[in-house]
Structure formats: C-alpha cells, structure tokens
Amino acid sequence: MTVFTRRALIGGAAAGAGGLLAGCDALGQNEGFRSILFRGADWNQWTQRALMNRSALAREFRPDQMSPVFRTNGTRNPNTPGYNAHAAENFASWRVRVDGLVARPQDFTLPQLFSMPQRAQITRHDCVEGWSAIGKWQGPRLATLLDAAGLSDRARFLVFHCADLYSGGRPYYESIDLVDAFHPQTILALGLNDRRLGVGHGAPVRLRVERQLGYKHAKYVERIEAVADLSVVHGGKGGLWEDIADYEWYAGI
Ligand SMILES: Nc1nc2c(c(=O)[nH]1)N[C@H]1C(S)=C(S)[C@@H](COP(=O)(O)O)O[C@H]1N2
Ligand SMILES: [Mo]
Q: Ligand 1 mean position to 164 CA, how many Å?
C-alpha cells in the first residue's frame, strides 16, 4: 500500500483550494494553532478525518534532533506493591496479556516481545499540557501481537490497561481504534533512546501511537483487551482522562 504524507495528500486532493489548505498545513506545524485547530468547535472529528489520511506516517526526525532530555509526565512511578515487586526483579516476570475478542488469548513475556521484529522511530511527543520532546522509541509493532492472538472480526477497539492507579483507585487506561492499532508506527515500546525503558517513561512496556497526543500513549501496559464497544469499559469514554476530565477520545495530530 502506498502511504502518502499529509502534505502530499492535501496538495493532490484539494488543488483548487490549494492556497487556503497549504496555508492551513503550514499553520498546522505550529503548536498553538494546532491545539486550537484540533480542539475548536468549528473543526470537528469529521473535518479532521476528511483532511487527513490516517495511515500517513508521523514525521520522523534525525538523531541529532533528539531532545537532550525527554520529560516524564503523569505517573512517574506506579509505586504499587505489585509494580514494585516487578521493578525489584527488573520486570523479569512481567507479562502483557492480550485478550477479549481474540481467538487465542495469551500472555507475552518480555523476551518474547524483544524477539519479535523491532521497529525504531524518532518522533515528537506532544502533550496537551504544552510541551513536546523528540525521542527514539523501539519495540514490536502492536500488529504483530494482534496477529498472533487472532483478532476477531467483531473487535473495533483495543483497550490498554495500565499498572498505575489514580485517586479513588482508578487505573489509567486508554484505547485506540483499528486504524491506529495497525498503523506501521504503532509499537509497544520497550526502549527509549537506545536504552531499556525507564520507570518514569512506562517500564517495562508502553504504547507509542504516533499520530495521537501524549495521553493516548499508555505507559505500564499489562493488558490489551480487544472490544467491540468502549461503553462497557470503566466510565465508558475510552480513557481515564476522557472519563474524568472530558479529554477528546480522538486526539489525532
Ligand atoms: N499509565 C499511564 N500512561 C500515561 C500517563 C499516565 O499518567 N499513566 N500519562 C500520559 C501523558 S498525559 C503523557 S504526556 C505521556 C507522558 O509520557 P512520558 O512520561 O514518557 O513523557 O504518558 C501518557 N501515558
Ligand atoms: Mo500529556
């Protein structure tokens, strides 16, 4: 399949409105404008989807463009007894369970995840709290696990259940649709900047879903559940922040 960049797609598909859209695309590179564009009432999800080819790759950067420091945000250490026990043995018995609407529910060990074909990508992480960082992420594609587990044709979303708890004992969780799940840059990252993922960044495994804002990139992933409908999971809006703080479920960038 040919993958077009967003710029090429817009340039080709909307030649008549070229000036306007070219200007839009340039503005789209600007952080402030982008957050207005993608959260504003005039530009709903339909407009975003119409303008963007969702299989296009997120921009990848050169090694010399990597941020000297990659911030941590949200939970920096789950600090539960269970997580601390895993950390104490360097996550040797951590498992990622894949279940729900799959033919072969199963647990993946870290050695299994490391032995799958790995993808490495230098991308920019954009957090809604107003910071960005460029880092190199490495790990197997989510698609590899989903193929091994045999995703049911009733599955529509993947829910990522995390090891950290927020106030009231709410676990962090997030979800994505199948377009993002099978996107070539969607990986379960085991490494950041050529090292094993640290606790602050979601050790031992976190999602990278490069066409989405930071909060979609679930850290401390211990279970991936395939579902037909998000309304049955926790508060029903597909993620912790969606449930408790009205964040958009679709956070495409
Ligand atoms: N499990 C879990 N995943 C999470 C969060 C969190 O608090 N818990 N925070 C999210 C937010 S808002 C951001 S910006 C990124 C931060 O990733 P980093 O700490 O590696 O920079 O993780 C996301 N994934
Ligand atoms: Mo964030």
A: 10
The whole-angstrom separation of Cα 126 and Cα 33 is 13
Residue 11, exposed/middle/buried by CB under 10 A (0-12, 13-18, 19+)? middle
Q: Counting atoms of ligand 1 from 1, which one is nearest the CA of 207?
A: 24
Which residue segments constitute the domains of the chain, with CATH numbers given?
A: 59-245 (3.90.420.10)
State in Å, rounded, how far the first CA of the chain is from the last one: 22
129 alpha carbon – ligand 2 mean position (Å): 6
Ligand 1 center to 216 CA (angstroms): 8
Q: Whose CA is nearest to atom 7 of ligand 1?
A: 74
53 — pLDDT class (breaks 50, 70, 90): confident
Its pTM stands at 0.83
* Token couple for 42: 């005039």
* Structure confidence by residue, pLDDT tens digits, 109-153: 999 999 999 999 999 999 999 999 999 999 999 999 999 999 999
The answer to which of 53-57, 194-198, 241-245 has the lowest mean pLDDT is: 53-57
The strand pairing partners of 192, in sequence order, are: 137, 195
Mean pLDDT of the chain, nearest integer: 87
Write out the H or E segment, with its range, that includes residue 245.
Answer: helix 240-245
pLDDT at 27 over 80: no
Q: Residues enclosing ligand 1, CB less than 6 A?
A: 71-75, 127, 162, 164, 172, 200-202, 214-215, 217-220
